[in-house]
Write a structure and sequence with these properties.
Length: 425
């Protein structure tokens, strides 16, 4: 769907926007050049949208379908196309195999559809946490950690196939998240399970094309409730370290036990050049998969401060940014617009921090002022600068407002019908 009238939509907010931008400059005491520099960095920032987040997600208790959802991959790309036209920061899609399995003859159409909306293909995701139709062996007791080598081989073959699929669309990385683990003490030998995962991952690693990377995601619990083989960043890190330079640790914000200091994990991984990137979401209790920034925007800001510092120290630092959320009760497209906005705001706030002054306070053990510097940036209303970056790129001043005003969901329902179910979740 090609969106119309974005410029005239923006025009009605022009005066209000310019005043807000001016106030930001005056209140932060920043020059036009400094502002331009921040806008420039925001303009190049792209967050990948996972194909499974475009339909309504469910919980283990049920799923309440939305309307006008994408029924196939082409329609999923069209949905990302809508997001990207509105915010100019959603220029990539992350596929999940087998939910998005491509046949040779549809590759061309899919690539053209994506190119039309300037959408790239981000990391491809494997799936060995559920059994697929026609699959000969079951993952009920694990995949890469399974005691039976035949099951492990099946999972390894699947991951190689995911890499093959990714190559067809131009992806450059494979994300592996394993649900492997145990729900009861005694079920699994910890050491042997980890050893089997390591050996299996090595087979997949050796299959990676030269310019590919492997992202190893971790998660403390669920679906297994007693132990997970790759349960924390340390386990992911030691696997990545053992596999080699193409393997890195992927941080999913919801995959931590409550109160974990995620920003510190980020700094440690950057220091060791093992940070792959992020799965953004928010949570209160566990892997809640809520809208980014809905609950802990200050934590998100602190994480971005580490990232900005990391990127300043090492301009070649290349990270993968992706949303990984489930939209149970909101319109998925509206929810993603809110998530991307929250990410951009946290990034913009982190760009407002005076890192030189912060360093001085640290060297002087001036704890009070160190905190003050961070909070001062966090408490700045950076919405105008994020909007400015978006407008300069041809996006909408207020994407959500445009989405509602131009009745985009209603148009999708008209085209696709009320009861289409997106493949996957
Ligand atoms: Mn994830």
């Amino acid at each position: 769907m090609q969106l119309k009238d974005i410029n005239s939509f923006n025009e009605s907010y022009r005066l209000q926007h310019l005043k807000a931008l001016d106030y930001l400059k005056v209140s932060r005491n920043i020059t036009d050049d400094q502002l331009l520099d921040i806008v420039q960095q925001l303009k190049t920032f792209q967050v990948a949208i996972p194909s499974w987040a475009l339909g309504t997600g469910g919980t283990r208790f049920g799923r309440f379908s939305g309307a006008g959802e994408p029924g196939d991959l082409q329609q999923k790309i069209q949905d990302v196309g809508i997001l990207h036209q509105l915010n100019r920061s959603s220029g990539a899609i992350s596929l999940h195999i087998p939910w998005d399995t491509l046949s040779e003859d549809e590759i061309q159409t899919i690539r053209e559809e994506a190119a039309q909306y300037e959408i790239l293909f981000d990391a491809v995701n494997s799936n060995t946490f559920q059994d697929q139709e026609g699959q000969s062996l079951s993952y009920k007791f694990g995949s890469l950690c399974h005691v039976d080598k035949a099951v492990r081989n099946q999972a390894i073959a699947h991951m190689k196939e995911v890499i093959d699929q990714g190559q067809l669309v131009g992806s450059k990385s494979l994300t592996v998240w394993l649900s492997d683990g145990a729900s009861f003490p005694g079920q699994l030998d910890f050491k042997e399970a980890l050893q089997r995962v390591e050996e299996s991952l090595r087979e997949v690693y050796d299959y990676l094309p030269e310019d590919w990377q492997m992202f190893i995601e971790y998660k403390p619990y669920e679906p297994n409730f007693y132990s997970t083989v790759i349960s924390d960043w340390g386990t992911s890190y030691l696997l990545a370290e053992s596999l080699g330079p193409k393997a890195k640790t992927l941080v999913d914000l919801g995959h931590h036990l409550p109160n974990t200091n995620i920003e510190q994990i980020v700094a440690t991984l950057i220091y060791k050049n093992k940070l792959a990137g992020f799965h953004f979401n928010d949570s209160k209790y566990g892997d809640d998969d809520l809208t980014v920034g809905a609950l802990k925007p200050y934590q998100l800001f602190l994480i971005f401060c580490e990232l900005v510092k990391g990127m300043k120290d090492n301009p070649s630092l290349s990270l993968a940014w992706m949303i990984d959320a489930s939209h149970n009760i909101k319109d998925p497209l509206e929810d993603i617009l809110q998530s991307v906005e929250a990410i951009m705001l946290a990034y913009a706030q982190a760009l407002m921090v005076d890192y030189k002054a912060l360093k001085e306070t640290q060297l002087a053990n001036d704890v009070t002022y160190a905190q003050e510097i961070l909070q001062d940036a966090y408490r700045t209303d950076v919405r105008p600068v994020v909007a400015e970056a978006r407008i300069q790129e041809g996006g909408a001043y207020d994407p959500l407002q445009y989405y509602r005003q131009y009745q985009l969901r209603e148009q999708l329902i008209e085209k696709r019908g009320l009861y289409v179910k997106a493949s996957g979740l």
